[in-house]
């Protein structure tokens, strides 16, 4: 029995050793697979970053080129306007005056009824019509004299 127990113990130990070896091989295999997957992912991400950087540089170059073309167009337009103003100063001054007049009319129209009410009061004063107020201001003078007289009589009473 002792011999059988020793054989069983050796067999169990051999089985444990075999399982350990297979486990170690599996772990090593997983480690290698994980490292390969990580490296492949890193390579793919690096490639994507490089593509993104290249695209950003292309877009920057396009923007610079379009900006240069736009500036050239604006400079050409500015120079053409300057030349026109040199050849036709009266037209430019007339256009500026017309634009100023149109702008003032537009701003006055934006004020709405308030501007019309003020202009209505002004025309009533100019025509001599009164809207309950004295245009000469004599009524205000009488009131202030009466106020002075009443305050003087109050002072006398004290």
Keywords:
mainly alpha, 158 residues, 4 helices, 0% strand
General description of the model:
By secondary structure, this protein is mainly α. The protein contains 4 helices and no strands. It has helices at 2-87, 89-110, 113-127, 138-157. Helix 1 (2-87) crosses helix 2 (89-110). It is rod-shaped. It starts with a helix and ends with a helix. Residues 130-137 have low confidence and may be disordered.
Q: What's a concise summary of this model?
A:
This protein has 158 residues and is mostly helical. The protein has helices spanning 2-87, 89-110, 113-127, 138-157.
Annotation, overall tally of beta strands: 0
What is the CA–CA distance across the termini? Answer: 142 Å
| Class inferred from helices and paired strands | mainly alpha
Give the C-alpha Rg: 50 Å
Q: Give the amount of beta strand, in percent.
A: under 5%
Helix fraction, binned, reads over 70%
